[in-house]
Amino acid sequence: MKKHISSLLLALSILLTSTAAFAQETQIQADPIQIKQTVPETTAAQDSKESTIRKSKNGEPVSPQARAELVLAQTLYGLGFGIEVGMTAHHLFGIDGTTPIIASYAGGLALGLGGSLLLSRDGITAGQATTYNSGVAWGLGNGFAVSKMLDLEGNETFTGLLAGHLVGLGGAALVWNLFEPTADTIALANSGQIWTTAITTLIHGTTGFTASKPLLWGSLLAASNIGLVTGALLSHAFPMSRQRILIIDGGATLGGLTGAALYALVRRGKNQPLEGYMATTLAGTILGLTTTTYFSRNWDLNDNTSTQLFINPTDAGAIVGLAGNF
C-alpha cells in the first residue's frame, strides 16, 4: 500500500509540473496574438482569418477553452489509464514493485498529456473535445458495468476498466470522424444517458435492489446505452443548447431531492424504509424532468425584443415613457 501511495504522489507531482508547463506554453503563444490584434487588419486579412476560424463542418469554431478542457480531462484519464495498466499487469502477469508502478503511472500521464496536445495542435472545437472526453467516460462506465455483470472483483475490475477505456476512446474517434457532433449534441446524449441510468437505478431501489447482480448491472448497462443513443437522435429532431440541457438536468436533480425531502418530512418519527425514499425520489425526478423540459421550451428561441425607458424633464415635472419592440 505504501508503494502505491508514494507512486501516486509522484505521478501527481508530474501532473502538476506538466500542467504548469502547458499553461506557460499557452501564455507564450497567446502574447503574439494579442500584439497582432492591435494592428488594424485589412479586409483580405480578416477574410483569411475568418476562414481559418471554423475547422468543423458542423460550424463550431476552434476554441482555446475546448483545448484546455481536452488536455485537462485526457491528462487525468491518462493517469487513470496508467493505474489500469499497472493493476492489470499485476493481476495477469504478477508484475509488482515500485519501478513498474511508477513507470505505469508516469507513462499514462505522459500519454494523456502528449496525446491531447498532439490531437489539438491545429485547434479543436468544443464538440470534438466533448466527444473524446465523453467517449472515455462512457467506456469506463460500460467497462465497470460489464465487470460487475461478470462478477469480477478486486484487480480484475481494472481489466474491465482498461478495456472500456480503450473502447471508449476508439468509439469517440470513430463518432467524430463519421458525424462531427456539436457540443450540444453530445450534451443531450450525455443527459439522456445519465437520467435513464438514474431512473433505472431508482426503479431497482423501489424493490430494495433484490434483483440478481447480472440483472441489475445488465439493466443499468442497457438503460445507459439506450439513453445515450436516444439523446443523440433527439438532438437532431429537437435541437437544444447546452444551457437548456443544464437547466433540465438541474430541474430533474431538484425534483429528486424534493421528493426525498418530502418523504422524510411526512415519515418523520416513523419507520423510513429505503424503498420509500427511492419511490419518492423517482417520482420527483420524473416530474422535474418533464416540467423543466416543458417550461424551458422557449429557452433557445431568438429574442428580438428591445425596450427603452426615457425621461424628459418639463417645467412641471417630467414625462416618463417606455418604448420598444415586443
What does this structure look like?
With 326 residues, this protein is mainly alpha-helical. Helices cover 75% and strands 6% of the residues. The protein has helices spanning 2-37, 43-53, 64-93, 98-119, 126-149, 155-179, 183-206, 213-237, 242-266, 274-295; strands spanning 306-314, 317-325. It has a two-stranded antiparallel ribbon. It is globular, with a radius of gyration of 26 Å.
List the helices and strands and how they pair.
Elements: H1 2-37, H2 43-53, H3 64-93, H4 98-119, H5 126-149, H6 155-179, H7 183-206, H8 213-237, H9 242-266, H10 274-295, E1 306-314, E2 317-325
Antiparallel strand pairs: 1-2
Helix pairs in contact: 1-4, 3-4, 3-5, 3-6, 5-6, 5-7, 5-8, 7-8, 7-9, 7-10, 9-10
Briefly summarize what is shown.
The protein is mainly alpha-helical. It is built from ten helices and two strands, in the order ααααααααααββ.
Structural descriptors:
two-stranded antiparallel ribbon; mainly alpha; about 5% strand; 2 strands; about 325 residues; single chain; disordered N terminus; globular
Mean pLDDT: 84
Helix content bin? over 70%
For the record, give the distance between the C-alpha atoms at the N and C termini, rounded to a whole number: 67 Å
Inertia-based shape: globular
Query: If helices are DSSP runs of H or I spanning 4 or more residues, what is the number of helices?
Result: 10
**Can you list the strand order of the major beta sheet?**
1-2
